[in-house]
Amino acid sequence: MDIKDYIHELGRKARAAGRFISRIEPGEKNQALLKIAGQIEAERDFLTLENQKDLKAGQERGLEAALLDRLTLTPGRIDAMIEGLKQIVALPDPVGEITDMAYRPSGIQVGKMRVPLGVIGIIYESRPNVTIDAAALCLKSGNACILRGGSEAIHSNQAIAKCIKKGLQDADVSTDVVQVVNITDREAVSELISLNQFVDVIIPRGGKGLIQRISQEATIPVIKHLDGICHVYIDDKADPEKAINIAFNAKTQRYGVCNAMETLLVDEKIAPRVLPVLAKQYVQKGVELRGCLKTCSLIPKCKKASEEDWQTEYLAPILSIRIVSGLEEAILHINQYSSAHTETIVTEDYSRARRFLREVDSSSVMVNASTRFADGFEYGLGAEIGISTDKLHARGPVGLEGLTSMKYIVLGDGQIRI
Global pTM? Predict the structure, then answer.
C-alpha cells in the first residue's frame, strides 16, 4: 500500500470510528481512558527504553538541546501523562450539553447542544507526551483522531500507541478511534492535511516552520499558534520580591517551551532595584542577556539588543530586556511584538492590572503569575491539545470544549410557521 492509500485508509477508519465514539456513554469513554492510564503505568520501562532510542538518534543527528529536552520522557513526564488522563476522566463530559434554552413567541424552544468536531488530524514534533494528551482529549470529547508525530520521536510515539491500543481493546472500544501514523515520510503530512472527505480539522504542534507549512498548505481548517513570544512587565508598583521570582521562573523553569518568557519589560523607576538582582541570577543560570541601551547601562554583561531580538522566540537560555517609561509603553511594545500567546504584569496596583488585562490582546493575560502557567494542565483542562492564538473558533489552551462545537436545537409541539 502506498502512502496515499495508507493515509486514506486511516481516514476511512477514523470517520467510521468517529460515528461510534460520538454516541457512546461518558462512563465508557472514562473507562477507556483509565485502561490507557493503566497501560502507561505498566509499560514505563518499555516507554523509557523506546524513548532512549529516539534520544540517541537525535544526539547523533545533532538536535539542539531544546529539542532534545522536548523529546525526553522523564519519569516525571510519564507521571504527568498518567495524571493528565485521570484529570480528563474527572472532567465533565461536554458532549450533549444543552444550554441557552428559551421559548420563542411561536411556542418553540430554541437552544444549543455541544457536539464533537468529528475527525481531528494532529501533526506534532518532538514531544511524545502529545500523543497521549491528544488521544485522551479527542476520545473524551467524542472525536476520532489521526496522530502524526515527528520522525525524531517515532519509537516513543509507537510505544505510546501500543499502550493506547491495548487500553482501548481492554475497554471494548474501537481501536480506530485513535490511529497513530507509523511512517515518517513527509508525504504522509501532505496527504493528511488535504483529506477533506474524512478529516474535519487539523491541529499542528511544533516549530514555526511546521505550523507555517501546515497553515499554508492545508485545505482543512487549522487550529494553531505560530510561536510564543511571551512577555513579563514589571510595573513600578510591583512587589520587588514577587517580580524577581516571577521573572526568573518565567524564563528559566524550562527554556524550550512556548510559554517561556522571551522579553522582560521593566518600568524605569523600579529597574535599578530589580534588574541587577535578576541579572545576577540569570547569569548564574547561564542565560545570555540582550537589552536596550538603558538596560546595558545597568547590567554590564548585557549585550545590545537588535530589532530582531524583540521579534524572536529563542526557546533557549537567551532573554531580551527593555526598560520602559511606564504601562503605556509596555502595552504598546507587547501589542507590537507579541505573538499573542501569553503576557504577565507584575503590579500591586489594581487599576493598572485591570487595564493590562483589558488592553493586551493575547490569548492568555496574567497578573502576578509566571507565564509558565499558560497550559491546559495548569488551567484545569486535564491536558491540552495545543494553544490557539487565533480568535476562531478556539483561543488559548485547547481542551475538551475547544474540540467541540455548538449546534442549534429546536423543540416544538406541532408548531407551524404562518
Answer: 0.83
Grid coordinates in use for 297?
Answer: 547601562
**What DSSP string describes 273-320?**
HHHHHHHHHHHHHT-EEEE-HHHHHH-TTPEEPPTTGGG----SSEEE
pLDDT for the residue numbered 349: 98
Q: Which residues of the chain have pLDDT under 50?
A: none
Burial, 350: exposed, middle or buried (Cβ in 10 Å; 0-12, 13-18, 19+)?
exposed
Task: Evaluate whether 263 touches 313 at the Cβ level (below 8 Å).
Answer: no
User: What gap in Å lies between CA 264 and CA 248, rounded to an integer?
Assistant: 10
Q: Which secondary-structure segment (H or E) carries 212?
A: helix 208-217
Residue 259 CB coordination number (10 Å): 21
Q: pLDDT, tens digit, for every residue of 115-125? A: 999 999 999 98
Tell me whether residue 108 is exposed, middle or buried, using C-beta atoms within 10 angstroms of its C-beta: 0 to 12, 13 to 18, 19 or more: middle
What are the Cα distances from residue 259, in Å, to 171, 196, 274, 331, 397? 36, 32, 22, 18, 11
Q: How far apart are CA 85 and CA 164, in angstroms?
A: 11
Q: How many Å apart are CA 145 and CA 130, to the nearest integer?
A: 13
The pLDDT of residue 125: 85
Q: Between the CA atoms of 139, 398, 147 and 58, what dihedral angle is there, to the nearest 10 degrees? A: -130
Residue with the three cell numbers 540582550:
290
In this predicted structure, what is the pLDDT of residue 206? Answer: 78
pLDDT at 382: 64
Distance, CA of 89 to CA of 157 (rounded, Å)? 22
Position 70 scores a pLDDT of 84
300 phi/psi in degrees, rounded to 5: -55, -30
Q: State the CB neighbour count (10 A cutoff) for residue 150.
A: 24
- Residue-level pLDDT at 144: 98
Q: Which residue has the cell 474535519?
A: 200
**How do 303-304 and 364-367 pair as beta strands?**
unpaired
Phi, psi of 130 (to 5 degrees): -60, -30
- On whether the CB atoms of residues 265 and 292 are closer than 8 A, the answer is no
CA 147: distance to chain centroid? Answer: 15
Amino acid (one-letter) located at 302: C
> In this structure, what are the phi and psi dihedrals at residue 380, rounded to the nearest 5 degrees?
85, 15
